[in-house]
Write a structure and sequence with these properties.
Radius of gyration: 15 Å
CATH topology: Rossmann fold
Largest sheet: 5 strands, parallel
CATH class: Alpha Beta
Number of strands: 7
Number of domains: 1
CATH superfamily: 5'-nuclease
Structural class: alpha/beta
Helix content: 40-55%
Number of helices: 8
Shape: globular
Distance between the termini: 14 Å
Strand order of the largest sheet: 3-2-1-6-7
CATH architecture: 3-Layer(aba) Sandwich
Strand content: 5-15%
């Protein structure tokens, strides 16, 4: 299964060694593929040391994919792809005129095209994604942990 971790989930993984071991086991078995974008890397890079190193090590378990779509002042243009008009409209809808929502919108747009599931610890994100018109399954942390076994 292809899973994208929202930036806020990396903290939970770093704090839970059994979950980190389960992730590594599922990766080794080929049952899990993690995908991520520069958006998560950029957000995690803002964490203070020594936490930053642990968060980026978890990010390093994922394969990097280009974002689906781009937003001025957020996107790295060499790590972004074109979006259809429908996806671009969904990004704009999710941002609701607030540039502070650009990262979530890009993560959602990319997860919709590159992952089976987006895991987040942000309780309202699933409904925001659905309202914006993205089609991706969103799991809370607890469901991801249960799936890992």
């Amino acid at each position: 299964m292809r899973i994208m971790l929202d930036s806020n989930v990396h903290d939970l993984v770093a704090a839970d060694q059994p979950v980190l071991c389960a992730i590594r086991r599922r990766l080794a078995e080929g049952r899990l593929t993690l995908v991520s974008t520069h958006v998560q890397r950029d957000e995690l890079s803002l964490a203070p040391e020594p936490k930053r190193g642990a968060l980026l090590a978890i990010y390093g378990l994922a394969g990097n994919v280009s974002t689906t779509g781009a937003v001025w002042d957020v996107s790295k243009w060499d790590e972004s792809g074109w979006a259809t008009d429908a996806v671009s409209a969904s990004i704009v809808a999710m941002m609701s005129g607030n540039q502070n929502h650009a990262e979530d919108a890009l993560i959602a747009a990319t997860a919709a095209g590159e992952a089976d599931v987006l895991v987040t610890n942000e309780t309202r994100l699933a409904s925001k994604i659905q309202r914006a018109g993205f089609s991706v399954k969103v799991w809370p942390w607890s469901e991801f942990v249960a799936w890992l076994g």
